[in-house]
Structures are given as C-alpha cells and as structure tokens.
C-alpha cells in the first residue's frame, strides 16, 4: 500500500486574514503583491519547521556557548515561473542564504497540459532540500511536470508549497508524487470548466504582475 505524504493546511489566523484580502476582486496589483509577499514569509515558518540545524560555538557578551544555526545554502527554493516569483521574495526574506532554481512552464489553453520552456537548478542538488513554490495548485498538471523534472536532479527532499489548492489538483499531484508533502493556505471547493480554482482569487500571475 502506497503511503501518501501529508497535506498541511497552514491555517494561522494572520495567513487566513491576508488571504481573504487577496481574494477581493478590486484589490490593487501593489496590494496583492505585498500580501502575497507577507503570506509567503509566514508560510516559510511552517514549511521550514523541521529544517535541520547544527551547533556552532559563539561568544555572547557574557560567555561562550554552542548554539544552533541552519545551513540555508542547502535549501533550494524552486520557483515555477511566472507566479512563483511572488512567493519567492517572501521566502528569501526568511531564508536569505537559500539557493534558487527556476522552472518555466505555461499551460496550454486547450489541453491544460503544462509545457516546459525553461529549467535551471543549482549544482549538487543531491545535497539540497528543494521547496517548490507556486501560488496555485489547480489541475495539478504544472506541479506534476515541475516535480517530474526536479526529481531528475535527485534532490535530498522535495516539498511543494502553494497558496490555494483545488481537490482535483491535490488528487492529481498525489497520484503522481505521493512522496512529496504539500503545504497550502487553503483548499477551495473545485475547478471550473476553464481549469480555474473557485472561489479562488483569479489568475495569480495576472494579478501579481498587472497583466490583465
């Protein structure tokens, strides 16, 4: 029997409050961008909760001690372009030493299948923990394609972080990558006939970059 990695619903009140503001259709581009940045910083705390640490020796003003630090260079934030960029900045505010990878995908408007146009990762991925960032897990096709490619680099671990998920997308993703845990701020009702999450918040990329 296949063990499916958990889906973590990050339901902190601050995150839920800011997500509600983001959903509002008249929210300005600058406000939407700022809120996504803030939410990603807050979600970073949950996603990195069990990040490994090591003890180093330091001097406080009073005495020497051994204290824990993380090795941010072993963490790779993998941004699924283009909307993943909105998640990336906030995460980097929390883990500034992290490396960054990019996966360029677009969704074919007729088939809804993800088409890759760019892929760039740091070297030595087998030594690194990858955290994949994409605000929307809708059909799940882009997320599945991104993790398919990422697994070719053999990272130590993979986690997928999104702002909103649809039940259909979660089912699709877990069927393909049952070993990858998912972190999301909300699981919405369903997808509509165009593959958008409802009630959702619209097209995250368009709202983030003001392109519609």
Folded structure, characterized:
There is one protein chain. With about 210 residues, the chain is an alpha/beta fold. The protein has six helices and twelve strands. It has helices at about 15-25, 30-45, 85-95, 140-150, 165-175, 205-210; strands at about 5-10, 55-60, 65-70, 75-80, 100-105, 115-120, 130-135, 135, 155-165, 180-185, 190, 195-200. The strands form three sheets. Strands 1, 4, 5, 6, 7, 8, 9 and 10 form an eight-stranded mixed sheet that branches. It has a two-stranded antiparallel sheet with strand order 2-3. A two-stranded antiparallel sheet has the order 11-12. The longest helix is centred in the N-terminal third of the chain and has 19 residues, at about 30-45. The termini are far apart.
Residue-averaged pLDDT, rounded? Answer: 91
Rg calculated over all Cα atoms: 18 Å
First-to-last CA distance = 45 Å
Assign an overall shape: globular
Strand content range = 25-35%
Largest sheet: 8 strands, mixed
Helix content: 25-40%
Spell the H/E element sequence: EHHEEEHEEEEHEHEEEH
Structural class: alpha/beta
Brief synopsis:
The chain has helices at residues 13-23, 29-47, 84-94, 141-151, 167-176, 204-209; strands at residues 7-9, 53-59, 64-70, 75-81, 99-107, 114-120, 129-133, 136-137, 157-165, 182-187, 190-191, 197-198. It has 212 residues and is of the alpha/beta class.
């Amino acid at each position: 029997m296949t063990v499916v990695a958990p889906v973590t619903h990050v339901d902190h009140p601050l995150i839920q409050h800011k997500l509600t503001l983001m959903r509002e259709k008249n929210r300005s581009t600058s406000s939407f961008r700022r809120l996504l940045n803030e939410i990603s910083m807050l979600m970073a705390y949950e996603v990195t909760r069990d990040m490994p640490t090591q003890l180093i020796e330091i001097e406080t003003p009073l005495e020497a001690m051994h204290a824990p630090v993380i090795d941010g260079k072993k963490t790779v934030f993998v941004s699924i372009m283009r909307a993943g960029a909105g998640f990336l900045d906030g995460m980097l505010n929390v883990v500034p030493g992290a490396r960054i990878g990019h996966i360029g995908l677009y969704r074919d408007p007729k088939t809804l299948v993800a088409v890759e146009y760019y892929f760039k990762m740091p070297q030595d991925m087998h030594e690194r923990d990858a955290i994949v960032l994409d605000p929307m897990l809708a059909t799940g096709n882009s997320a599945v394609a991104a993790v398919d490619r990422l697994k070719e680099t053999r990272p130590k671990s993979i986690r997928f972080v999104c702002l909103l998920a649809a039940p259909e997308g979660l089912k699709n993703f877990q069927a393909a990558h049952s070993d990858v845990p998912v972190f999301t701020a909300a699981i919405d009702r369903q997808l509509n006939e165009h593959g958008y999450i409802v009630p959702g918040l619209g097209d995250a990329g368009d709202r983030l970059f003001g392109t519609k």
